[in-house]
Amino acid sequence: MAGRSRFLVTGGAGYVGSHVVAALCDAGHDVVVFDNLRTGHRESVPEGVRFIEGDLADRALVDAVLADGPWDGVLHFAALSLVGESMQHPFLYMEANAGLGFALVDACIRHGVKRFVFSSTAALFGQTEDALITEDTPIVPGSPYGESKHMVERALLWADRIHGLRSACLRYFNAAGADPGGRIGEDHRPETHLIPLVIDAALGRRGALHLFGDDYPTPDGTCIRDYIHVSDLAQAHLAALDVIRDRSVVYNVGTGTGHSNMEVIRSVERVTGRQVPWLPAPRRPGDPARLVADAARLRAETSWIPRFVTLDEIVETAYRWRLAHPDGYRTGTGASRTPIMAETVRA
């Protein structure tokens, strides 16, 4: 992106959001992070970045923040994101993701925001026979989580047609890894992502890993997923911001290569030099057998090219982060990185 711009990032203290904030700052932009810190970490926000602790449900606060413009764009990551939890509490996800997403889009329109980047998901697609999922693959969400994200995508389509709000819906596949420089990484509580769980099992920080389903129609019986390094994912957001100066877009963001759960275990064993204890477990509701991206459209329409192309490279960055931060942001260098402009804002 040419020139210095000012962006609001909701959920910018979370895993993917914090890596996008770092990429925006590295590119010389001004960033304001808005996060309720339920799953995010204030320590992940770079020094010098203004931090506002708040919830999207506080409509007056959201209006007050957006009124403090002008904004060159809003990047929206704040959401609930657990497929299994959404199968137990579907309307919680509809309200938190779709309802509050609608309200944020409406507020952006009222305050004259022209560009909006939305953190969407490959969970839109559910079960599919397609070897590679394109942006035109039929959308059949396999969970309320995926459904809630699709609802926001539809809202953004109408926001463009009626109000001219240009948007990019980025359909993530499996974000993984950590900042190559070790500044930030993955710290969910509880952790639900496969790669950090496998690393912890290898390090003896947890018991045997449970693999959910070993009877899928895949070569080794375990689910196949497309793992995209979180820093490559962050760069896709910057690329999309350039495109939506003129038009709205929908992009898959992945590598085009699928790896099974068992292949993830073998990769962690290679990188760490340790054996991973594991046990088979029943399938989880809402989990498709295979989700692998065709990201040709993103590559063709932008300059985006993933830097981390092998699973071992991705795992290695996650492993280095875990060794340096055995308790996440509670220990290691991350715990000392308190933002110098953090604040709590009242409407």
TrEMBL record:
Pfam families: Epimerase. It catalyses: UDP-alpha-D-glucose = UDP-alpha-D-galactose. Keywords: Carbohydrate metabolism, Isomerase, NAD. Residues 8-254 form the NAD-dependent epimerase/dehydratase domain. Its EC number is 5.1.3.2. GO terms for molecular function: UDP-glucose 4-epimerase activity. Pathway: Carbohydrate metabolism; galactose metabolism. The keyword Isomerase applies. Its cofactor is NAD(+). Belongs to the NAD(P)-dependent epimerase/dehydratase family. PANTHER family: UDP-ARABINOSE 4-EPIMERASE 1 (PTHR43725:SF53), UDP-GLUCOSE 4-EPIMERASE (PTHR43725). Homodimer. This is UDP-glucose 4-epimerase.
